[in-house]
From TrEMBL, chain A:
Residues 77-214 form the 5'-Nucleotidase C-terminal domain. Transmembrane segments: none annotated. GO terms for molecular function: hydrolase activity. One of its GO terms (biological process) is nucleotide catabolic process. This is 5'-nucleotidase.
From TrEMBL, chain B:
It comes from the Bacteria. Residues 37-255 form the Calcineurin-like phosphoesterase domain. It comes from Mariniflexile fucanivorans. The keyword Protease does not apply. This is 5'-nucleotidase.
Amino acid sequence: MRFTYLIYLLYILLLFNCKSPKEHLTKIEGKQIQITDSIAGDADIEAFIKPYRTHIQKDLDSVLAYSVDTYTKTEGAFNTAIGNFMADAVFDESNPIFKSKTGKNIDMVILNHGGIRSIISKGNITTRTAFELMPFENSIVVVAIKGTQVDSLISYLCKSDTPHPISKLKLSVDKNFNLIEASIQGKKIEPDKTYYVATNDYLYNGGDNMTFFKPDEGLYILDYKIRNALIDNFKKVDTIRPVRDDRFIMKK
Amino acid sequence: MKRRDFIQQVSATTALVTIGGFGLQSFSTIPKKTKITILHTNDVHSHIDAFGPEDGRNANKGGVARRAHLIESIRNENPNTLLLDAGDIFQGTPYFNYYGGELEFKLMSKLKYDVATIGNHDFDNGINGLYAQLPHAEFEFISANYDFSNTIMDTHVKPYKIFIKDGIKIGVFGLGIELDGLVDPAMSKETKYLDPIEITQDMTQLLKTNEKCDLVICLSHLGYGYKTNPNKISDLKLAALTKDIDLIIGGHTHTFLPKPTVVKNIEGKNMLVNQVGCYGLNLGKIDFYFDANNNKSANGTSIIV
């Protein structure tokens, strides 16, 4: 049977010979295909997604609270009802968490006007409202800064022509936007005192040119999303009726 | 053995030897041709449903079910197809907020993704949140420059993966973006970011020189390019500073390119950098044609984009 083996061996050699002119890359063609409605959806995939989608839609539409009016971020200079609501909600929901973690209280809250991503419409407030208001995943952080840096925060607010949401901080400026008076929870700001300022991780990292958080004396990550704070607040309050108030005003 | 059989076998042997002797010549007239198709997505960001007709920018575009259909038809046409994702699978729609990435991974498994790399947003539920979804992924994750050895992801992410399709050896390695300033350390924990250029030099040495891959693909989440910060490492920069990469598939910067970019590498050889925007609006398709005809290869590789 020796010869049979020899034949097999030759076959193998022959196969190697066929392969031996190694293939070379001769041409590359690249393009991009748009996924449009001209492509039919795969029915199995659609069916697989459906129960997930149904559950989410049902939950997003679940009613959490009621809003007595429609609130937008463009109604008002220096402070807006919707911004006041958001900053106060962040204070109310995160202070107990901060207190239980550190034994300390949050002194004030600052968010950014650009972070109010939609309106609150009159009528039922749903989980969807919270997602529209705050589609981003930003989380609440508490930053410990000296009074001198709170002063920088205040001059940022005075210079900025935008009603950034604040809570527990009270400001008044003259018609040239010069500071007249500033206080935190009714008390004057002391340069050497450490203040605990709640904000979100985006702003802490310098978003919207808020560069006054650094250097800080401590950063406390609450692991609590702004959106979840809003949802928790909506669940508690039943009805919301925020107002523009005197937290930031221009004295004539 | 009967004498007659013996003669037949001997003559058969002779005949084979003869053919063997002419082997190179005779086969060169019908050379083996192989086409490898690379399909890719990036920054899908949990966009499972197509955009609705009311959407201001992307009306009626995208959608996983349509992508599934398209990929299947391409695979039917060419079974030698790889499907890759360049990261940021997570974050962007309530599907992620509600299910933490479970549905994204399950659907990518149904679409038969071969491999994905890790984007910064894939840490959005923390490294534990990513780990928790791994049982839903029937594809692998690769990253050569994230060192996960002190994290829960240890052993679950490989630096590279080698595929063999119809005799063509394809090496794919992953690269991730610098985490500092982008991902909260509480989320990425002890994930270490290593220099992409040094890692790429190691990877191409390993895949091209040692493993003799016919194709080397870099699956990157570094970002296409940074005009305002030219020192920042990007796909374009990596392409120009390294060698032996045929294709960089990118992500992170949500860059919509009219066509793949041809870049000269450090040896002056042309290679491709591609990225297909975001949200599953597009599917990238790169076809590599291999040919055993030596004369053709002598003329180099033509790139048609």
